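Risk mitigation, structural track. In case the binding assays with zinc ion fail to produce interpretable data, a predicted complex structure has been prepared as a fallback.
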Amino acid sequence: MIADQALLEHLESGHPARAKIEADLAKYQAGFRGEQNLAYFLDTFQKDDWHLFYALKLKDCQIDTLLLTPTFISLLESKNYAGAVRFETDGQFLRRVTDRYEGYPNPLLQVGRHRALLRKWLANYGVPQLSIEADVSIAFPTTIIENPGHLRHVQEHVFHAEHAPLKIEKLMGKYKHTGNLAKFFPQVEQLLLQEHIDEPPNVLTLFNVHQSELQRGVCCDKCRAFDMQRIYANWLCPRCGNKSKNAHIPMILDYFLLLGSSMTNKQCREFLRVNDRKLIRNLLIKMEFWPKGNGTGPGLYYERPSHEWAETIYKKYRQIKRR
Ligand SMILES: [Zn+2]
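Fallback model:
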């Protein structure tokens, strides 16, 4: 999603790919809000020895939220459906959109499948059967959950995001003495961390945009001109007079999101349209990027930061919005 945003930032306002990218971004943002909602409630509830993973990719499935605790694992599938959702006794899942119902994949089956896959995946590493719960969290408190057959597994495993802390508390009670994760916790945490390498999709290929179409330079967040100049310790926009200390930060992040998983000093200079090798080096080190590779000059490169870090920085320096 932030790669979509990065691409939009660097395309001219009249670029033909914009509409498609904006539509894609809007779709992601709806999902993002859903997860954010759940994240908000789970964050109020964090414990030192818990580990929350978001958007965890395991082989061919993506797990929205995985909570690893010393006694159990909770998988939460986050759905941001508005209106009403309906779980039929025959396993069908429907959404009410305005006044009619439409069939959709059943999220309970989906999260159940994820649990089975996770079990299998852990078994491959010699981890025995663990206590894993699979639930569906509905983002908006206004969404009506219909369960006409009073199915017990729906009553127990589908709830609004705001009830997530209560649900987790119940699970803590349930597994207090029976949970069997403690011994394997470090191993499982390590395995999940290893797996959690988020390759951003190659958005340029996806939207058929050529590298040469990207606007380069340091962008002014007031007037959107890619013309900011380094004057002493600031970036100054010659067009509107806007001054910034950190205008280079989102640009450097955009490089990693759009152009590759590693970046040399030269590539960074070309992307930011800055001539000063030393300045780039210092700016990168200030952002805690340390050069890797051999030698002192052209053999050195910087590696793409983790997805989590990129998102945090994005939230801080660039408002995530649809432009
Ligand atoms: Zn400006």
